[in-house]
Design brief:
Blueprint: H1 6-17, H2 20-43, H3 47-66, H4 73-95, H5 98-125
Helix pairs in contact: 2-3, 2-5, 3-4, 4-5
């Protein structure tokens, strides 16, 4: 008999029961987490692990890109920002650059904070 990891069960349930705006916030937060883990791995000279975490952050950006709704000015602006962030992550991965990871982390944190604030403002209006 196989036992499931309670944390994985909780995560899966959180994703399947969340609203779209909550999922977007989770993506931003996940990107920050993976960038930080990539940085830590570089500091510990674990380049393979850093690469893996960097790819996870890139995957999140890819997911954010495909969920954009075309035809809106904000979508075009976000697409440009996401593309820029992804290219910086790729460059950071190639050069194992903490500076580039910190730059992208700053953008990701700002997006996360802005999104969280917008969600709170929306909820106070309802």
């Amino acid at each position: 008999m196989a036992f499931s990891n309670p944390y994985q069960t909780y995560q899966k349930q959180a994703v399947t029961t969340s609203k779209p705006e909550e999922l977007t916030l989770m993506l931003f937060q996940g990107m920050v987490k993976f960038i930080r883990k990539s940085k830590m791995a570089i500091e510990q000279n674990n380049l393979e692990e850093s690469h893996s975490y960097n790819l996870r952050a890139q995957d999140i950006l890819s997911e954010l890109i495909v969920t954009l709704k075309p035809g809106y000015t904000i979508s075009d602006s976000l697409l440009s920002l996401y593309d820029y962030m992804k290219s910086r992550l790729i460059e950071a991965n190639i050069h194992k650059s903490l500076d580039l990871l910190e730059e992208v982390e700053g953008h990701a944190l700002e997006l996360s904070e802005t999104w969280s604030t917008a969600m709170k403002q929306k909820n106070t209006k309802n």
